[in-house]
Design goal:
The chain is of the alpha/beta class and 331 residues long. The protein is built from twelve helices and twelve strands. Strands 6-7-8-3-9-10-12-11 form an eight-stranded mixed β-sheet, with helices on both faces. A four-stranded antiparallel β-sheet has the order 2-1-4-5. It is globular and about 65 Å long.
């Protein structure tokens, strides 16, 4: 494994710029690395900035959202300053993305086999016949029954689970080194979700592909990823290995997420909701953004913003009261 990370995000800030008005920061000064073959999760509530972070990496930010500062490097090359033609060459053979809703990502008037074959023809130089053979093989690997027949189907003729597998086959058709997943199992039932997650895990293990998995579901990230970052109000508030963060959270928001999720090993445990609502990002104060919802808040939290700092080897948290939170989590 190379010492240089495959993906390096440094001090990335994203904002929404409106004519005649101030810029609203929606992702604020975040940094993380992803090594080759690593499975890295980003979790948080809706609006925390996790999907926008993923879209910034893929150069797919929606209109009006801009990179305000920071760098995104792939194999040491700055994607922000890379010529558009060079960046397009990376899409497929190096970096691929699986979207949340396949019906909006798939072309409704194009057969699914042709959609899978399109990228190998463009990036690998395969003939139409060879690319279609590869597409059918990828459909078989993703567990689609009777792939030769299903390759001739249109997206609306397939179930949600099969469409999601088509998206996975498309993303992996050129054997990318980095796979970006934007909540790809949200619309699936529990059984199909489990199958898709196992499939992603197996395919990444077989090919050595690195995974960045965005989700609001703690169970999904626990099953899929080894490392994670927890985002709140556009900031990373905790980072570390999944097993360590889940067993001993060091930020009150992480603890709140875990306390609000069911634990099948402890069926009698009462669930505790996080009180209040996420802050208005257009009106950031000087204090900790989680302070109004935090049961551990002290006077300092209202006036000073904690920064992400190491609290244990391999663990970082942005909180002034990490020791108290750990004691509460393990009590």
């Amino acid at each position: 494994m190379s010492e240089e990370p495959l993906l390096s995000v440094r001090n990335l800030s994203l904002g929404v710029r409106r004519k005649g008005g101030p810029t609203t920061v929606i992702v604020d000064d975040i940094s993380f690395d992803v090594a080759e073959g690593q499975r890295f999760g980003i979790v948080g509530e809706s609006g925390s900035g996790k999907s926008m972070t993923l879209r910034a990496i893929a150069n797919l930010l929606p209109g009006g959202v801009k990179v305000l500062s920071g760098t995104i490097k792939y194999r040491g090359d700055d994607l922000g300053t890379m010529p558009a033609k060079s960046r397009r060459r990376l899409a497929g053979p190096e970096i691929a993305m699986i979207f949340q809703e396949p019906m909006t990502a798939l072309n409704p008037v194009m057969r699914v086999g042709e959609q899978i074959a399109e990228s190998p023809r463009r990036h690998l130089g395969l003939s139409r016949a060879a690319a279609m053979d590869l597409a059918i093989d990828m459909m078989r690997k993703t567990g689609i029954p009777d792939p030769a027949r299903r390759a001739r189907a249109y997206p609306h003729e397939l179930s949600g689970g099969l469409r999601q597998r088509i998206m996975i086959a498309m993303a992996l058709s050129c054997s990318p080194k980095l796979l970006l997943c934007d909540e790809p199992t949200t619309a699936l039932d529990v059984t199909v979700q489990h199958q898709v997650l196992r499939l992603l895990e197996q395919l990444c293990e077989d090919s050595g592909t690195a995974l960045v998995f965005v989700t609001h579901d703690l169970g999904v990230v626990n099953q899929t990823c080894r490392d994670l970052a927890v985002m709140y109000a556009g900031e990373i508030v905790e980072r570390g290995q999944v097993k360590n963060v889940f067993s001993g959270p060091r930020h009150p928001y992480t603890k709140g997420l875990l306390d609000s999720a069911p634990d099948f090993d402890k069926p009698d445990r009462k669930l505790a909701a996080i009180p209040g609502f996420p802050p208005n990002l257009a009106d950031r104060g000087d204090g900790c953004p989680f302070q109004p919802r935090c049961p551990f808040a002290v006077e300092q939290c209202a006036t000073s913003r904690p920064r992400l700092e190491q609290v244990l080897p391999g663990r970082e948290a942005a909180c002034f009261e990490t020791a108290r939170i750990f004691e509460g989590a393990t009590a």
